[in-house]
Design brief:
The structure holds 2 protein chains of 2 kinds. By secondary structure, chain A is mainly alpha-helical. Chain A contains 27 helices and 4 strands. Chain A has helices spanning 8-20, 22-34, 38-41, 44-70, 83-102, 105-108, 110-130, 141-149, 160-175, 190-205, 213-219, 226-241, 244-265, 277-285, 297-320, 328-338, 340-349, 353-359, 368-385, 398-406, 412-425, 429-441, 449-461, 465-472, 484-490, 503-512, 516-526, and strands at 77-80, 135-138, 177-180, 183-186. In chain A, helix 2 packs antiparallel against helix 7. The N and C termini of chain A lie far apart (110 Å). Chain B is of the alpha+beta class. Chain B has a single domain, classed as paralog of FGE (formylglycine-generating enzyme) (Alpha-Beta Complex). In chain B, 33% of the residues lie in helices and 12% in strands. Chain B has 9 helices and 10 strands. Chain B has helices spanning 2-24, 32-57, 62-67, 133-142, 148-152, 165-181, 187-194, 204-212, 277-280; strands at 84-87, 90-94, 117-121, 124-127, 198-200, 260-266, 287-290, 307-309, 318-319, 323-325. In chain B, strands 1-4-10-5 form a 4-stranded antiparallel β-sheet, sandwiched between helices. A 4-stranded mixed β-sheet of chain B has the order 8-7-6-9. The radius of gyration of chain B is 32 Å and the shape is elongated. Chain B starts with a helix and ends with a strand. Classes of the chains: A mainly alpha, B alpha+beta. Chains A and B meet through helix 1, helix 9, helix 10, helix 23 and helix 24 of A and helix 1, helix 2, helix 6 and helix 9 of B.
Chain lengths: 527, 327
């Protein structure tokens, strides 16, 4: 009988090798176990997505173990606890908590967030070990996952794409690198990298509807005072990581361009805000990764200004192409990351002491960042005082857009249709009937009898009698004043609907939105 | 403390061992080219997959649908007029006279001074039967509605119910377009459509004339209550035409009982008049339904009974039938 002597050193190593996989194994099984949570098990595709993710991670570990059985090597961790990661993660989580309190799908998403975080950790470990590196164990994956999900996540039936998106982000971080100041660093912000790629694909394939992106970008304002909230939590990040110049410059650029456009065109540039809330979120939590942004103060400022210009331009370009404008805040980040070395070089070339000293940290001594924050706080305070953040915005008012459209102001009719589409989607019957009338008349949109009919049908279902009349008589485009319920839906100013608002208050608010009939009713009630 | 030091020492040993082992291995860690290829493959897969998903989201080209040969009569009855019956032009008596009909409700009275009225109608066509699940499912399938499978799974012979007024009108609009363009449409119907008629729901007067004829009947079959000709006081819907009714005006089925039939008339006080679209704005959004259902007692299936619901109601006892009307 043949016997094979086992080298005790090899046996020991093999057991150690297997032992070093305890954490990724545990996380893989945790992902699998998570799939049985009611939130996930309730949708078979979602459950299979988690199973698929676990299976791929398990196969990867199996492959590594087979390989290591022949050539034993231990896999280990090095500790990498950075404030940059956990502070960012805590700030992002607080945004989820606040936003989710007013928009329930966010809380429903927590299980899926947990699964993604576990997947990200395991994927990162296996990737590092496959590259024969120690894994830097810290909080790094959490802000990547949180920041990705603050802008995009897939519907349950396509959730497996979320894991693909994470994988692309981590592969990009690992392999797409350059030498910067003598060190090998990743070029792209990992979340912005995958968001950018996926945005392009979703635009090109017209599959935005497979994601929650439109809802995500429009529901932030359901949380009251969201601008002030984001501003406040943004200050924490600014204080700890000196990114005030990036965020502040981006915000000031956008405020400036918006104000300039409004002054010239007579209508707001962005539909119902000076800076859309999702963009405001992005400029605090998406572009502020210190390792993928410039290092010099002037470079940071330029970076922020370019982001502001990028968002401003992309909003128009995407709208012009008929694509969802919500991608404006995502598409320009990878391009900006690519320009970082160029920006740093450009700044170094500036020989003017006057310019450089203005941005030199020494100018304010060690308190430079605090000084920048004071400027930013003043600007935000001023914008708030002018009613350009959380207060009522002219673009919230349907009559404003009706009047602007009548006056043929730039883009006003398209915006009117867009606003009415939003409210019709909210089940405001009046808005559906108006849309039907536009498409039947063909004055401000191309005539479309079938689309008109479907809008009238919706208005009729919502018990708007003019909608029913228009449904029965295909030659008419009758209009009527909004119902009380319509006002409760259309006066929300980006926030929650006004279902519980007393009628007098509702009509007073409608009057402040320039609904003439509401002013009459409000006045009559007051007499 | 000592335990912490031990752990740190072990960790250091592990790292050292790994480094030593690594030096002795001929295994090469995946390089940048492999990693970038893997990443781009994932991106390419995503692009192709999402592109495929987008084709799943897009409806078929309507041109393709239009070119498909029409070999069926849209699931309508296979008789010469595809289930439609001509109602000749002329006057009929509308509303109730409580002296002749003790079961009459107040809203059936013509006016404060008159119990009943006379209404003149031009010729029109009305469905012999209530619209069935089969017909409605056919329409939903042709228009690629997401609810087609739901209706296709129902008993095809039962009257379609649980649909709202706009859905009924959408079906009528679709059938109108089909009948106008199909070469197989019976000539009589095509002529009527060409002359300005359209497929729609009946108004109250059209429905009532078809139900009671021109001799002022209380029930479609005559003046006396009977359960021989109608599914009334029953336990469920029955396939359309289950109760044949030879004595009924114009030979129509289920004008009493089975399913309530929604009309295109808003609920307004008599005397009946054709309302302009503008006039509809001044009344509540309640729409008249006629004929009663299988759940009702005999007094609610009289030809003059007027029920009403709002336009979004989807009720398992409310269906409809169609007319081809010049009004």
């Amino acid at each position: 009988m043949n016997t094979t002597e086992i080298d005790p050193r090899s046996a020991l190593r093999l057991s150690q090798v297997v032992g070093s996989f305890k954490l990724p194994m545990a996380l893989t099984f945790a992902i699998f176990a998570l799939s049985f949570a009611p939130r996930i098990a309730g949708n078979s595709t979602l459950m299979y997505s988690f199973w698929g993710a676990s299976a791929i991670l398990l196969l990867w570990q199996g492959f590594m173990l087979i390989h290591l059985a022949r050539r034993p090597a231990l896999k280990d961790f090095s500790r990498a606890i950075y404030a940059q990661h956990y502070v960012q993660a805590m700030v992002q989580f607080s945004v989820y908590l606040y936003w989710g309190y007013y928009w329930r799908p966010v809380y429903d998403h927590f299980w899926l967030l947990a699964g993604q975080v576990m997947f990200a950790y395991t994927f990162g470990m296996l990737l590092a070990w496959s590259r024969r590196r120690s894994y830097m164990l810290g909080f790094g994956p959490i802000p990547i996952i949180f920041s990705t999900n603050l802008f995009l996540w897939f519907h349950d039936d396509w959730f497996y794409m979320q894991f693909v998106m994470i994988a692309v982000g981590f592969l990009g971080k690992e392999f797409v690198r350059w030498k910067r100041d003598g060190r090998s660093v990743h070029i792209f912000n990992p979340s912005a990298f995958s968001l950018g790629f996926f945005s392009l694909i979703l635009i090109a394939t017209g599959t935005t509807d497979l994601t929650w992106a439109p809802e995500i970008s429009s529901t932030l304002t359901l949380a009251p005072g969201i601008y002030t909230y984001l501003f406040a939590v943004g200050l924490i990040v600014m204080y700890f990581f000196s990114i005030t110049l990036v965020s502040g410059a981006a915000a000031i650029t956008l405020f400036g361009f918006s104000a300039l456009y409004a002054a010239l065109a007579g209508v707001p540039y962005f539909l119902d805000s000076e800076i859309p809330a999702a963009v405001f979120l992005g400029l605090h939590l998406l572009i502020t990764d210190p390792s993928t942004s410039p290092r010099t103060p002037l470079g940071k400022t330029l970076f922020g200004v370019l982001y502001g210009i990028g968002v401003f331009a992309l909003y128009t370009i995407l709208g012009w192409l008929g694509e969802p404008t919500l991608y404006d805040k995502l598409l320009c980040v990878p391009l900006l990351n690519l320009s970082v070395i160029g920006i740093d070089r450009l700044v170094r070339r500036i020989k003017s002491d006057a310019v450089l000293n203005l941005w030199n940290p020494a100018w304010f001594g060690v308190r430079a960042n605090v000084a920048h924050m004071v400027v930013w706080i003043s600007v935000f305070g001023l914008m708030s005082l002018l009613g350009r953040t959380d207060a009522q915005h002219p673009g919230d008012s349907v009559p404003f857009w009706q009047q602007s459209c009548s006056a043929q102001l730039p883009n006003a009719c398209a915006r009117l249709v867009s606003v009415e589409s939003t409210y019709c989607g909210d089940n405001a019957a009046w808005a559906c009937n108006e849309l039907g009338a536009h498409y039947r008349e063909g004055l401000i949109v191309e005539r479309d009898a079938d689309l008109a009919y479907s809008y009238f049908a919706r208005a009729c279902e919502l018990k708007f009698q003019a909608g029913c009349a228009n449904l029965l008589q295909e030659q008419t485009a009758l209009r009527a004043e909004p119902l009380e319920l319509d006002l409760r839906l259309m006066l929300r100013q980006g926030g929650k609907n006004l279902i519980d608002t007393p009628a007098p208050e509702l009509y007073a608010r409608a009057c402040s939105h320039d609904w003439a009939f509401a002013c009459e009713r409000s006045a009559a009630a007051g007499e | 403390m000592a335990s912490g030091k031990k752990k740190r020492r072990q960790s250091n040993e592990v790292t050292t061992q790994d480094a030593v082992l690594a030096q002795n291995l001929d295994y090469q860690a995946p390089g940048r080219a492999v990693g970038i290829t893997a990443m781009l493959s994932l991106v390419a897969f995503t692009a192709v997959f999402m592109s495929y998903q987008s084709t799943q989201l897009e409806p078929d080209d309507p041109a393709d649908l239009a070119q498909s040969p029409v070999v069926e009569n849209f699931a309508l009855p296979a008789d010469p007029l595809w289930g439609f019956v001509a109602i000749t032009a002329g006057e009929f008596t509308m509303g109730s006279n409580p002296q002749r009909d003790r079961m009459a409700y107040e809203n059936e009275r013509w006016s404060s001074s008159q119990r009943q009225g006379r209404v003149e109608l031009p010729e029109y066509f009305i469905g012999r039967f209530e619209v069935t699940n089969a017909q409605f499912a056919y329409y939903l399938t042709e228009t690629e509605s997401s609810s087609a499978a739901l209706f296709a799974a129902l008993d095809p012979e039962l009257p379609v119910t649980s649909v709202s007024l706009p859905q009924m009108l959408s079906y009528a609009r679709w059938l109108d377009a089909q009948l106008r363009t199909s070469a197989a449409t019976p000539a009589v119907l095509r002529e009527a459509l060409k002359a300005g008629s359209k497929v729609t729901l009946p108004n109250e007067a059209e429905w009532e004339k078809a139900a009671r004829g021109t001799d002022g009947r209380l029930f479609p079959w005559g003046m006396q209550p009977s359960d021989a000709y109608a599914n009334v006081g029953g336990s469920s819907l029955l396939p359309v035409g289950s109760h044949s009714c030879e004595p009924c005006s114009y030979g129509l089925s289920d004008m009493a009982g089975n399913a309530w039939e929604l009309t295109r008339s808003a609920l307004v006080d008599y005397p009946f008049a054709l309302s302009s679209a503008e006039a509809l704005l001044d009344v509540d959004s309640l729409w008249v339904m006629r004929g009663g259902s299988y759940q009702d007692s005999i007094n609610n299936v009289r030809t003059a009974v007027r029920g009403a619901v709002d336009p979004s109601v989807r009720n398992p006892t409310i269906g409809f039938r169609l007319v081809i009307s010049p009004l």
